[in-house]
Amino acid sequence: MKEAHFRIRDLTNDEYASLKNLAIQLTGKPSIAALAKQLILEKLGKNDHKLSKEKAENQGQRIEVRLQSPDLKELKERARQSNMTANRYLAMLFQAHTQKAPVLSTKEIEALYQSNAQLLRIGRNLNQIAKALNSGSQTAISTHLLNNIKDELDTHTEQVADVIRANWERMP
Fold this sequence. Notes:
- The protein has helices spanning 13-27, 32-43, 53-59, 69-81, 86-99, 106-134, 143-170.
- By secondary structure, it is mostly helical.
- It has two domains: 13-59, no CATH class; 69-170.
- α1 (13-27) crosses α2, α4 (69-81) packs across α5 and α6 (106-134) runs antiparallel to α7 (143-170).
- 6% of the residues are buried.
- The mean pLDDT is 78.
- This is Plasmid mobilization relaxosome protein MobC.
């Protein structure tokens, strides 16, 4: 793919504002470059590259929120703890609030992923134990092995409980 760069010089403030408004109408974004690209591609008969306004509206829009310094620090800290950006963290909180359903943070998804990986290992261990017991051969299933499986199950249960608790705390 190639790039083409160009400048539009000597625009008045009104012309610039009009171009931005036209860009929003035709592309869903206030980007004059996106508007220019769309118009050029349309002239070339390349309508398949056209960015529809509906598609742009579903991609996400920008909103600015002003916070006091202590609130901003708290937001950034909570986002960091959840392995998320401040913007993504705010979007997650809003989705959880409007949907009245839990929306998981990156950290919570990672915890559930790890928990499921542990469950798979536990399942394999249990299958090996069942196979050994069903084969009729003499087995040396130790209490230690069973305690390891119990410990893994306890860890899994704690991780899931932490995720559920975190979601309850976020819910209004």
